[in-house]
Amino acid sequence: MKRSQSIRLILLGSLSTAALTGCDEQKPAVNSQNYYTNNFYVPGSGYYHAPFRNWYPLPYNHFDVQKQLYFYGGQWGAQPFASITNISTPTQDAVTVAQNSRTDISRGGFGGYSGAHSGYSGWHSWGG
Predict the structure, then answer these.
(1) pLDDT band, very low/low/confident/very high, at 123 (cuts 50, 70, 90)
(2) 3-state secondary structure 100-113
(3) Which of 5, 77, 85, 102 has the fewest CB atoms lying closer than 10 Å?
């Protein structure tokens, strides 16, 4: 009996360590020197639209069946947006908003949550 209890404690300790380690994982920062392709996704910031050099809540050229419109660059259009640009660097303003809106990184302290700018549900420190 004593042996099975110590095995349980070791297993619980291992699981706790794994869970805490997973929360501390550092994600690469978004920056204006990196090139991003259309629909590069950043949790909390959305999808990158290369021709517009910014992140938006819906994928590039997303088609809404009810509206019968396409979404690109923060607007709706009757046709998909045609551009040869499918990779670009974001503006510094876009980087600042995207980095501050991220929900996939720990902000430190208790709770570790800074509100999501784009309206996505927030990340909580206990959900890692």
Answers:
(1) very low
(2) HHCCCCCCCCCCCC
(3) 5
For residue 24, what are the contacts with CB-CB under 8 A and spacing of at least 6? 106
Largest distance between two CA atoms of the chain: 71
Please report the pLDDT score of residue 127 as a whole number: 35
Instruction: Return the residue matching tokens 């619980």.
Output: 12
Q: CB neighbours of 35 closer than 8 A, spacing ≥ 6?
A: 87, 88, 89
| Residue 69 phi, psi (nearest 5) | -135, 160
The DSSP bridge partners found for residue 42 are 46
Between CA 124 and CA 128 the distance in angstroms is 7
Q: Which residue, among 124, 127, 117, has the nearest Cα to 44 in the 3D structure?
A: 117
Residue 6 has which token pair? 């110590």
Strand, helix or coil for residue 96 = helix
- Helix then strand then coil, in percent of the chain rounded to 5, is 25, 20, 55
Q: What's the rounded Cα separation, in Å, for the pair 127 and 19? A: 9
24 touches 31 (CB < 8 A): no
Distance of CA 73 to the CA centre of its chain: 18
